[in-house]
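Two entries, shown back to back:
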Amino acid sequence: MSQRGGPGRGRGGRGAPRGSSPAPSSMGSGDRGRGRGGGFDRGGGFDRGGRGGGDRGGRGRGRGGPAGIFAENVPVNVPARLQDPELNALTAAFKRVRVGGPEMPFRPGWGTLGTAGVVRANFFAVTAPPKATYHDYSISFDPAKDAKGDRRARIIQLIERSPEFAPYVASIAHNNADRLISARKLPQPLELTVLYHEEDQDEDPNGLKFRVDIQFTRELKTSDLHEYMEGKPEHRDKDVLPLISALNIIMQQVAAKRGVRVSQNKYFFPSAGDRATTLSLGVEAHRGFFMSVRPMYKQLMVNVNVCMTAFYTPGKLADAMLAFQRQSRGGMPESFSKRLRVSTKHLGYTKKHTIWKVERSKTARKEKFDCQEYGGQITVENFFKRKYKINLQHADDLPLINVSPNKQRPIYLPAELCDIIPGQAYRGKLDVGQTQEMIKVACRPPDENGNTIVNTGFDRLGLRPNTPGAALSAFGLTVSDRMADVPMRRLPPPKVAYRSGPASFGATDAGWNMREVKFQTGGDMKGRWGVMLVQEGLREEFTGPSDPELVDFLKSFLSMCNKSGILNAGTPPRVCSVTAPRGDDEMRSRAIGEIRNTLRTNFNPAMKPTFLLVLISSGDKGLYHGIKRLADMELGLHTVHMLLKKARTAPHKQVQYFANVALKVNAKLGGVNHLLDPASMKWLTEKKTMVMGIDVTKPGPGSMSGTPSIAAVVASIDDTFAQFPASLSLQKPDWNKESKEMVENLTAMTIERLQLYQNKNKGQLPQRIIIYRDGVSEGEYALVNRIELPRLQAAFKQISPQKPYKPLLTIVICGKRHHAKFFPQNTANATDNGNTLPGSVMDRGITDIYDFDFYLQAHKGLQGHVKATHYTVVYDENAFDANTIQQGTHTSSYHYMRATKAVSLVPAAYYADLACERGRSYLDVLLRGLSDTGSSAGRSSGARTQAEREAERDRVFQEATRLWAGGLHKELRDSMFYI
């Protein structure tokens, strides 16, 4: 039965997320959901997505009306394989197997705690033949140097059209590059010769010729996959990944031909007639689909999800350049034009090129080159006029583009002859404005996403029976268009306790407020705090330190600090002012220098303020990062920023805003904002336990080549599990090709955390350590045990060389970048915006067959489609059962110090993520492709030798090391400076 929503149901929430960090250009559609403040979710319930229209029903009764429910009138049907007797027999077999060393534990059992129910999940059953044999082939090209990128796909297309290959076309699938899967044996050797030509080009006997060799590599038997899915322990190590990747190629055959592939398993269809959404000049958003085959217990499935990605807007390159000139004196940014793909037609057919550089100082009218055909030196303008009878209209007002990677042999083209090729994913990182526009189109309620998947998605991806060009039937595959019905449980929330007010109270819908309560432990302001006005000339600003409105503003904030329970918060602050006119990076650098001088002049280092309140009006991220680096690394001064356009608002909103800031101030000062009830904390307090969070952040698009990754390790210091100071470290992003995501200095960073724990606990070390590891992809789980586990164990040895120290260790991976989405079955089991209820945990049906994993949605998504976090236990000396680790992780999600609500990611991992982000502030000039010294290392265009590239990367890394200097100031190292 096909699942479709009814006509016109609820339309989800609206609005942009709090905070303004740039987001990646590719997004899912859903809920960000990590709380950031007193009663407010950071992202407003958004996960790299935004609002958008629906497909075929499920739209809505309007804002404020009841939300729609996907497939509400379709009865749920949980298959027998997911019933208790069968699943209990599965885990009973696991318990008979002894796991040793760094091997991942088997699932110990299934969770039973909470209220049971059923949800739908965006997984669809795939029927595969039980005893089929598929044939795997590699594809090679000669000459290989000329068969790269789009050209490979075109060569394979020409092979498929050749008469000698025609008998095999209906029974093959390929990845448009180097791998081919066939449902029947192909003759060997199989070599074909292709005379290359473009789609609209006549065959040229003198054109490029390619010899293509299709060589057999192995047989893939579906019986191996079925044995693996049976769940017998002896089949756990059966290598089914080659067959799974082959199935992905088979099932994605139609999508690969019709659409544009972006990253792995994401396909977009810009030519399908969907309306694009403009994000900014030259950049637009398109909706597409993620698709990936997954083996589950006794069932092969395909995970299908809606996703969004930014694309370059197609059209005339000259028009885009002129538009950029009108917008900015600098014209089209290099970050936009570099590696942009364009096409020309002046040769009589479409030829594709890559822009290596826009030659800003060269125009077609002025630039000459030596041309023997026309007797020597000739301008580019005259060459195109004489050779191709083209009169250039922008010969003197638009720069030439260079489409050659060889600096010694440039190839210049006039921009007006070039078209931006459609279907190019945007290479850059979205800025704040682009992100906000992406949110508007991507944030959609669950019912809209569900209907888009089963209607538009199945059609576009070619998953329906008898789809033209699909390879499914040739391989004996069929796909159900009914979403999986899987068991879920709603876990009970903890009770929250403050120092005054009710002894403890429950959280309603995973949130609460601080009305009439005080922090459990107030941090001490010691009567010393400072305020710095950053004057950028905007209307939201105060006139100066003596502005009466500023005096009232600070009194109100101080009143909130007092009411919240912060100690010694009655003394007025010392206020200073700095003029920081808005401008380029050079002006920003001068402003940071002025701020440095002002702070050193106004605040005695021997009696520095406990924190500095920075009042800023523009939200300039470069200025923000510069202040954080100055305060954290040079001055050893806690800073808290307020954005005045948000802080100077209506009185009731200002109270809420000040409450958010008070949460951060108290945490920075070492306070404890709230606790959970003893029953909820027992899983941590029954033995001396330290909770750690680990994360690594990599440089993104636009960063200078050689910019290092930043690793963060945070850890609790006592039995309140409220304070998590951090260690930060630089590491080369390509230090070790195999383990580039692993923490290089993990031993030293862990020793720092253990030493602080000792200092806070009368010399005692924890008996147990529970680690929540963020930032690790599914394919790297084994690397954590193979590479990071020994580094942790080395720290245990070094912290206590005389007396062996062997704490019981558990490592849990936190996965956010998955595509599992869940849908409530009816309104009784849904939030008011159509999402699944907070506390939902799913560990059956769509989880791993053998591994100890589960999906947990601790928080309430406020808008869009809520996204659960995927937790996987990869090492477990504590032998936790499912209830303990699931409910413990759930209750811990209510213990985040910057929110009065449950957050989507367990706080230890969330803190590590925040600490990494703070580390990025210290390297901001490199991450944005700039340099304090004006160096252009890592950004120059044109071909370079490997040695030159290595030398440039090393120079950038040395610059990063200089910027990092001694790291965090010693006076902040024992605090949550990053929160």
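entry 2 starts here
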Amino acid sequence: MLETVAIPDGMPVAESRTNDPLETAVGVYVTVHGHFYQPPRENPYLNAIERQPSAAPFHDWNERIHHECYRPNAFARIMNDRGELVGIVNNFEYMSFNIGPTLMSWLEQHDVEAYQRILEADRHSCERLNGHGNAIAQVYNHIIMPLANERDKYTQIRWGKADFKARFGRDPEGMWLAETAVDYATLKVLVEEGIAFIVLAPSQAQRCRPLPTHHEADSEWVEVGGSQIDPNQPYRCYLPEGDRSTDYIDIFFYDGPISRDMGFNDVLSSSQHFAGRVGQAIRGDHRPSQLISAATDGETFGHHKKGCEKTLAYALVGEFPNRGWTVTNFAHYLSLSPPSWEVELKPVTAWSCSHGVNRWQDDCGCGGGGVWNQKWRRPLRDCLNWLRDQLITVYEESGKKFFSDPWQARDAYVQVILDRSPANVNRFLARHQSHKLTSAERIDALRLLEMQRHALLMYTSCGWFFEEVSRPEGVQLLRYAAHAIELAGDVAGVQLEKAFIRRLASIPSNVECFQTGAEVYRQLVAPSQVSLKQVAAHYAIGSLFMTYTREQRIYCYSAHQADYQLQRIGSLTLAVGQIQLTSEITRESANLVFAVLHLGGWDFHCCIQPFVGRRAYSQVKDTLFDALKQASSAQTILAMNRIFGDQSYDLRSLCAEEQHRIMRLLSQETLTRLDQLYTQVYRDNYGVLVAFQQDELDVPQELQVAAEVAISHRATVSLQALERETSDFPPSSLELCFSYLSELEAIAAEANHLRCHLKVPQAKQTLERLVLRSLWHLIYAYDANTAKADIEWLERLIELGHHLRVGLSLDRAQELYFKSLHSQILPQLAVWQTSNSADWHTTAADAPPGTEPNWNLLQLRQLLALGQQLAVDVSPWLNALP
């Protein structure tokens, strides 16, 4: 992993490593807390996030925010005044943070390098701060705790703790409450679950007073209800009527003005400005130590405020330590300076609502923008509370048939959520079953637990946060509710959907085409429900365009292909198959037969039915393929309907992404013909185009479009050929790769000459992959015989990206190079300096034994020059070479 390094331009990455401030509370301590969180966005039936057009050019909002925030904070850049990289800082190693479990599970799947970097950051902070890591836990799926029933409070905290320990390898000391929403009932559960501290807004405190010593009477309370509480120290909060020796939790109140400025002003415009603002909060009252803490959404650093992760990095490792401040976290400071004051809280509060927690249950005006009302909030919560209570009855009555303690099983179910492997599911059921479960009972047991998981997910706070119930956040809550209803019906046979929809009719929508929550459900929720037959249809239609293996994963289902046959006659294609679909979540399974007829273009006719036996299946195949031989689509469809019935599926039955993939494939032939047509127009009129350009006249739109389409098509074809040739690296023929590269360079020059705006799908991603792959090979499979060509190849790839104007991002290549610079290149340079101080041109064979460098001076020079091409500052070493 990359290490933080010294920055040569007078900006050392400093750490306060003296014993005093780390062992004894002395001086000024600074903590910046980032609350990193994204709501769960997965389709409940597919356990996958579907494409979100509003996040373009990224697939979805998780991916977009990750690109703008999470990864940049794991690899925060320190730049010099020439825009060159001089250091990489893992901000998570120096800031306090919580990352919601639903976001962490996404990160683990989609960028394991950044995910591991976050875990590593916590380990390093533990080592630096006497065992107190920067990470704190979070209530599991960001529900508003004061509005949850008692049982859900316990599960949210237990799931949050278990997820944290599974990832970070230690028990959490602190916990972040969603929206910092708190009441004393929530504190009671936190205390019982062993949470040492929480972080709140200063507006949530009611009054405070010094803690009495053994020889002192209680002090007078000081009213601080208007956010006047001193945030520079921790406070102890006792549970009402509890045992004061055990029933308490410690609370940090972040500095409100600094935190607001971070989110809404220009405090983060520079690290000096940020440090200056923090310095204004330091109390000059000669106290031995004080903590200046700020808290904000972690997405502020890079997503809400572009590039601010760099400001944070400079501040944490440079500005703060250089001013003599100790960068710490809440747990470490608490270990040095326990509370000397106690606090009482207002009854029910949160950090983003001045009306208690009404933002998540009433039309309080928060988050409305002044255009739409939020009268829908109360009936939405009432509807979900009604459903939750119905599901409790289902769970208790059905759960006692399977579990020795149903609610204990629910609390432990997080272990299955973390690891759905069959072996782990078996261990879980063995621990919690009331008797040895049959296969059908195991499925029902898992369905019940999933029903409860979705009952918790439907309270995710984001659904109430904004101005309208039909926004994606509100729709997502209703999707969870719909799946919970379906699972309840599967297990217990209860039908809750009609009654739920009737209640949704009481929810007013601000959008005319919906009017009520019932119509939101019908239009936006019901269509997203996916049955096993729809998954089979997805498989069947997709099989016409790609070759499936015998074992194929389709979202959260595994498909075992028992048989598959395909025949084509004229424009008709017919496929018949038998598959076994198994849910990776509930383990429910279905053995199905499908037939899919492609009539050409966008027309598909797909039918599904249960597999009843080999003989019947053979008859189905014979009948359908005999009908196909007549080359009549009508006869084939009639035969399919006689066998399967009237229910059928077409392209619209597929998940949106599969629809779009097949639509692109079906359009390819037409687009190819158009490319050929435009290319011919371009070739025939090339001289005319050049004449217009030379005389600085406006080129006719038709000719300009023809040129752009034709040149873009050539670039796409050449780039695809280049990627195919380099799919195995190193390529079999570097000469051929250089020829493709030369062709692309000529195409880029031609496009620039004719002022064409090229549209080359995937060009950016393809070139970035090629650069990263080539750099990895150069460094970790170094070959002195090909090094010069390998470096030239890399430099030309990077230049090509600039010439094609694709906005090439070299971040990952920079990170790889920066790591190798300090782990390999500079150590090799040091060996040369030691062994060849008299003669830099000595060969490697002449170096003293045990110090032979792998690279000679020329190669080291080339590698350092490559760093310049990657915008890494290597000038101190390159300029020192003879």
